[in-house]
Design a protein that fits this description.
By secondary structure, the chain is an alpha/beta fold. It has a single domain, classed as Rossmann fold. The chain contains seven helices and nine strands, in the order βααβαβαβαββαββαβ. It has a seven-stranded mixed sheet with strand order 5-4-3-6-7-9-8, covered by helices on one side. The longest helix has 24 residues. The radius of gyration is 18 Å and the shape is globular.
């Protein structure tokens, strides 16, 4: 997959609001990371898109913890997704709340099918920069609407669902509804999701990036202190593992390294690996 020709005489205007506008935060973080000599991940496509959007990214400057956290979570999700693909070379990967994710470009093995799911205005922006193919495409719709997933056919292929920077903006009843839909439609699938640090709940107005987007009053609405609580939801979820972003690339976390391990486990977002029960 390649991006379109981006070096034009004008920059693409950004017409996003609400949760959709938050996709610009990870794009900025990956672009900034790519420019670093000690980059945790390199994402030249994100940098190219970043340089060709008409948006004031300077508002995020100084938010080093958010930027580092996104770089680390990107690396963790890349590695876990790559491991799944290595084990299942013809898998179907469904990326929920895709934003301007470029993960397919880094991990494509020439055989997988990859589906990006996001709201219509986001998919419209994606299509400015990404070309769809028989193995790579977008679905415009809300993850809270079961009909959104009707175009995705599983067949006998293993399915991996990725949800990065998504569920923290939903109320728990919405999250439960989404999981009930997904586990019913994709039995036996696996999922990689980002879980917000519980201490961040309700503190969006203090977040150095979320508080600065034009939309204003967005809030962090859902997190769990113990991810295993999801196993009691009655929809066949099993926690297969989790990893705290603060436990990785400690050289980049500065003064946070002075916190004891118990505090680090509470402060950091986690990447949670889930399995769905089979029918």
């Amino acid at each position: 997959m390649k991006t379109a020709v981006l070096h034009r005489l004008w920059k693409e205007p950004v017409r996003l609001a609400g949760v959709s506008e938050t996709l610009l935060i990870p794009l900025w973080a990956r672009a900034v990371e790519t420019r670093r000599p000690d980059a945790i991940i390199r994402d030249p496509i994100a940098l190219e898109i970043f340089e060709n959007l008409d948006y004031d990214f300077s508002r995020f400057e100084g938010a080093w913890m958010t930027q580092t956290g996104i770089a680390v979570r990107t690396k963790l999700l890349d590695d876990a997704t790559a491991a799944f693909i290595a084990a299942h070379p013809r898998a179907v990967v469904i990326n929920l709340g895709a934003g301007l994710s470029t993960r397919f470009s880094r991990l494509d093995n020439g055989e997988i099918r990859w589906v990006e799911v996001d709201l219509p205005e986001v998919v419209a922006l994606r299509r400015v920069f990404f070309r769809e193919t028989k193995r790579y495409g977008c679905i415009a719709g809300s993850v809270t609407e079961p009909a959104t997933f009707e175009p995705v056919t599983q067949g006998r292929q293993p399915v991996l669902i990725v949800a990065e920077g998504l569920f923290m903006y939903f109320a728990e009843e919405e999250v439960r509804s989404v999981f009930a839909c997904l586990t019913g439609r994709f039995p036996g699938a696996q999922m990689l999701m980002e879980m917000l640090a519980p201490c961040a709940l309700g503190l969006g107005k203090y977040d150095p990036c979320l508080s600065r987007i034009a939309s204003g009053s967005l809030e962090f609405r859902w997190a769990l202190g113990d991810c295993r609580a999801m196993e009691s939801w009655g929809c066949g979820l099993k926690v297969l593992g989790e990893s705290n972003v603060l436990e990785h690339h400690r050289e980049r976390w500065g003064w946070l390294n002075f916190f004891p391990p118990q505090a680090m486990s509470v402060l950091g977002n986690r990447i949670v690996h889930l399995g769905f029960a089979r029918e």
